[in-house]
Amino acid sequence: MSLLSGWRAALRIARRDALRSKGRSALVVAMIALPVLGVTAADVTYRSSTPSKAEQLTAQLGSADALFSSAGIGPVEVEQMPNATNWGALDDSPAEPYAADADSAPVDVPGTLPEGARYITEQGVPATVTTRHGIITTDIVELRTADPLVRGKVELTKGSYPDGKDQVVATERFLESTGLHIGSRTTLRGPEQTYTITGSVELPADLSREALYAEPGAVIAPWQAASDRDKKVLPPQASDVDWLVEGPAGVGVPWSDVLAANKKGVLVLSRQVVLDPPPDSEIPRAAHAGQSFEPVELELSAALVTVIAMAVLEIVLLAGPAFAVGARRSRRQLGLVGTCGGDRSQVRAVVLAGGVVLGGVGAVVGVAAGIGLTAAFRPLIESWSGIRFGGLDIRPPELVVIAAIGLVTGILAALAPAIVAGRQSVLESLTGRRGTRRSSRVLPLLGCVALASGVAVAVFGGTGGDTAMIAGGSVVAELGLLACVPVIVGFLGRLGTRLPLSPRMALRDAARNRGRTAPAVAAVMAAVAGTMAIATYTTSVSAEHDYDYIPMLTPGTVALVLSDASGVDQLPLARAATERNLAVTGARADVGRVWAGSDCSVYFEKENDCGSLDMVKPKGESHRCPLQGAGAKKLAETLSADEHKRLMQSPACTDEYLDMSALDTGSSKIVVGGADVLTSYVRLDDPAAAEALAAGTPVLLNSAYAENGEVILKAVHRYSDQDETNRKPHPGKAEVTTDRLKVYVAPAKYAATPGIRMIMPQKTADRLGLHTAPYGSLYTVAHTPTDAETQALSASFTQAGGRFYLQVEDGGAAREDVVLLILALFAGIVTLGAAAITTGLAKADAEADLTTLSAVGAPPRLRRTLSGFQCVVVALTGVLLGMVAGVVPAVALRLVDLSKAMEAMREQPMDSAYTPIVLPWETLGLLAVVVPVTAGLLAALFAGSRLTLTRRAG
């Protein structure tokens, strides 16, 4: 028999055997198809969500041929690259739109358009409009959204396009945030123009955009006219006009038209030019573009490589026992092959052919299902990613490779059962006796060695920053632990001595059939290990960010800030509005600004006329931050992360550590206030401090500025000719005064209070001849203000004069661990699938035993409970081992981060090297408790309690 004809016969036998054992075949196909499905869906999703060059142009141009815009430097000849992002004046002097002279001559953009071209204009303006809750600041764009040139850039989702100057359309995100809907009316504050929302639109390239779209001339021109009539109405701060241009039919906008427009100071983004750029010899800017547009290749991380390797390993491990069970159930058929003259290689070929057949089917099914599921969940994926797909980007070469991997892994899964089947004697196969085989004692020993060496290699790679060693060591450690799984499974049988019948039988069945149980446990372990690695790393990084986060305000507080001194009279109204609209708890703390000489916040354009007020830090080692100057680098290397942070928050270093705050209290960080600031914002409950403020003694929060209970206050008085208010009480030339103030020094931990270094009583400021004015109020709130609350408050501020704003401390914008949730769901699905397949194989492999149990009078529920506990044993064992295995790459990756952090700290000793390793306990709980219990319940639910008795064969 030739090799080709021999394989043809083997494939035919495998195909018939697969059709005869449909249940087992379906399990194998499912486990090969599941990872192929995931990789296919990931590939199609990534390709579809990554916009091509043509899709990026559509997002910018719609269906227009080009976008014309002024360079912003007047009618000066410019040079540009084909994509219009890199440009400059003809003499190569740096040219930026913000450097344009306000008096420069306007650019005649329409005069540069190709002859016969059609265009529409686009111009945006920030504006404040009313909402259901109050008011909100958003963008209003004047663009004829009904024009075909806009298709692809802005799409109507509901309702209709504007059909008049009093109508607008809104993005879906705007409607969701404001509580408005189609048919609602919104008013533009200032000119008080009212518009009706006639429809909702979306920007396919930016689904999260909040904006309104109106017809050209419907907003900006009436607003400007209202400003000209009434000087109380501020003029619109509109952006430059863009021209969406449709070139002559069949011509577009070629490079020659772009060069002609450049000569008049106009930049052009042309679809035709970007998709088919001219040679560098025809691009004047190419010689000194100074920018590379080469795409950046994606570098696979060690964690990703580990997960991919484990996915392939999962297929092999899960499908392997299915082929082994199939080979055992077909052993009589394989024995007949031997009696007919077939040698061992032909017996192996029959089993391997099963891998080819089922692997091929699984690969095809997985690819098809991956494409189908991506298409089905496309709206959800688009909403999550914030971008619409231009279409499903299916790349056949990549899908063929993915399918080939599924086919090859199916063959690999059948390799071990094929070798075992080839070693069986013909007599053993025909009689159905399995014989007695002892477990290998060498394999667990090799596994322990591989586990230890893999961990060592991964850790060494982590300390050296070598991601290849991390990936390799992690995979070797995984394989070493896999080799130990049979011993661990065998040990399980000893745990059920005193358990009830069903769990005791499940444990003993798992230990007795290690060839079936161990690979499934290992597959669950592999899936959970990859998830555990990424989840642990992500949780650790989040903990690091939380540790290093510097609050802009005291946590749980908000600040009502006066933006214009002319709004002082309306400050009580703003305070009442804040207390009415926000979840305020506790007492309000009013604070004021204090300064010397001219108010620099008002006369910032006359720097020489500004005054200043500062505290002078005394000289001496006790007042100097040890992480600055000589010896700082050596000291930083000896400190632990907690010691470093405590030192950074110490009074001597906190000025460098907390150099930003939502409270703009000047360089001195001195505020005028009373005891209520201590209790509500500083959180200092000290009667002695309150008494000091009442007696006129300032409370110093940063003790590094104190010496012998006093601080040095340096005031520089300068006076502007325009500053009548400041000159009257302090006539004469500029002067410098230095005062020593007796202060009450707060404990060192309060030096880290954001924005405040010292609280000065009003009577002290008056005694020193300093200027003061109300600054705002500080509140403690029960929760971070919502969109509705902030919009309602903004409306109240407008009614009170509009010279106020709210500063919020959100705790670093709490992150939703969506990635961790997805990883946990992925691992849970794989674990459920693996446990279900193992339970199915156990049923198929132990059918005779279950028949015997029924024959001797076992209750019907035993079949259900036994199936359930078999599933729990596999799922729980695999999950627990996977948790242990997944820590290896996570620790190694964090060691890489630690080495980078230490290097950065050597360069800048004030940078933190805190690199924690934090376990994702919520994810662990989901995997260790919910998944095994769910797997057991599902297995018990779908297992039949009745069994038709048949005569046992053999």
Task: Describe the structure in your own words.
This protein has 954 residues and is an alpha+beta fold. It has 3 domains: 54-286, no CATH class; 493-549 and 814-954, no CATH class; 550-808, no CATH class. 49% of the residues lie in helices and 14% in strands. The protein has 30 helices and 23 strands. Strands 1, 4, 5, 6, 7, 8, 9, 10, 11 and 12 form a 10-stranded mixed beta sheet that branches. A hairpin with a 6-residue loop joins β2 (78-80) and β3. α9 packs antiparallel against α10, α16 crosses α17 and α17 (514-548) runs antiparallel to α27 (818-845). The model is unreliable at 92-103, 291-303, 601-609 and 725-734 (pLDDT under 50). This is ABC transporter permease. InterPro entries: Macrolide_Exporter_MacB. Keywords: Membrane, Transmembrane, Transmembrane helix. The chain crosses the membrane at residues 302-326, 347-380, 400-421, 442-462, 468-496, 517-537, 818-837, 871-896, 924-944.
Q: Tags for this entry?
A:
954 residues; alpha+beta; ten-stranded mixed β-sheet; four-stranded antiparallel β-sheet; 30 helices; 14% strand
